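Input/output pair, single chain:
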Amino acid sequence: MIDFAALARDAGDGIVIADAAGAIVFWNKAAERIFGYREDEALGRSLDLIIPERYRARHWSGFHGVMKSGVTRYGADLLRVPAVHREKGTISIAFTVCLLRGPDGKPAGIAAFVRDETERWREERELKRRVADLEVKGGP
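Output:
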């Protein structure tokens, strides 16, 4: 028999689950590595813990809309956004979500499957800068 709790706990991607109000109810080892908070520091806290302040209004508008409608486009589409690491400050993450429903079929929470893409984002930014410099100079 497969131990799905161990799978979620030990997965290489961060798994963060929040209830319908946005309180964190599950936080795996990879989430600890990605965001810098231990499980006991994250559980029960608002997702604001990892959302940059300037993006919170937009996040909560979308979050509450999904909880009300029961529909999200990020189940298959990758979302890339800034996030907050406890000690490193702003990082770049990519994630998909899975809407979790209660016995009545209504949204009861949401699970996010998260990867730290900070290094990829920096490399891409540097490549874009180099291309822009070459374009200004008229070629290689």
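Residues 4-137 form a domain with the Beta-Lactamase fold (CATH 3.30.450.20). The first helix runs from residue 4 to 10.
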